[in-house]
Amino acid sequence: MHCFSRSLSALGSIFGLGSLLVLAGCAGSVMEDDPFPRPTDYEVSGIDVSKYQGDIDWDSVHKSGVRFAWIKATEGGDRLDEKFGRNWTLAKDAGVTRGAYHFAYWCRPMEEQAAWFTANVPNDPDALPPVLDVEWNGQSKTCPKRVPRDYAIAQMKIMLAAMERAYGKRPVIYTSIDFHRDVMQGEFTDYPIWVRSVKCHPAIRYGQRRWHFWQHTAEGHVAGIRGYVDRNAFNGTMSEWQSWLADIKSAGSRGASLPRNPQAS
């Protein structure tokens, strides 16, 4: 995004205050009066990885300050990420708190996808809650890019319930801007949400949705990983992060409190 060279008052007179806030929140440079926090303003940072990151040096990742990692486990009803086992074991050994995610495929029953996920992801009490990754399958040659909203919601409920039964933790939902707009508006408000927004603060792209994790770039760099990696931020302080982890381990699914969302107040 381009930097802003005009003053806030000048921009406000041209675009109006509402537009100004959107422009500020989507800017690539820091502005004194920008009301939206930058990714670096959040105390707890993490990554998400798959086979595309190759063999990761998890000790170096941990030493870099990464606090958590979401690791791709499965896709659809028959695909297992070839690096999942290695990442799952070595991340924990290195001291990185990790969780597993499943990429939903809309042309296979979620009952089958749930069985595949639970067959391949160990039930580790120290792990983060499981994640259901819901996006439109735009690259599939055999499945429609979009399915009806009611169908998507029903299928998600099946998968989320199965994950919660198997792991005793309230699952996290990962979603993109378009899928959230098309399917999730007003739905699943009692689940932790992990949102993708690489150009703007989530408050701009997702409105009043109470978000909990923010995937803010696909071009991050972290020691121990060659090439790009997705970077994420937890929506809370370090103390809140530690409390949330403790709640997950001690209270199980519905006893674990959700992280706060300072932008929703």
Question: Could you explain how this protein is built, in words?
Answer:
- This protein has about 260 residues and is α/β, with parallel strands linked by helices.
- It folds into 2 domains: about 1-35, no CATH class; about 40-250, TIM Barrel.
- About 35% of the residues lie in helices and about 20% in strands.
- The chain is built from 9 helices and 9 strands.
- The protein has an 8-stranded mixed beta barrel with strand order 1-2-4-5-6-7-8-9, surrounded by 4 helices.
- Helix 1 packs across helix 2 (about 15-25) and helix 5 (about 110-120) runs parallel beside helix 6 (about 150-165).
- The radius of gyration is 19 Å and the shape is globular.
Q: Nutshell version of this structure?
A:
The protein has 265 residues and is an alpha/beta fold. Helices cover 34% and strands 18% of the residues.
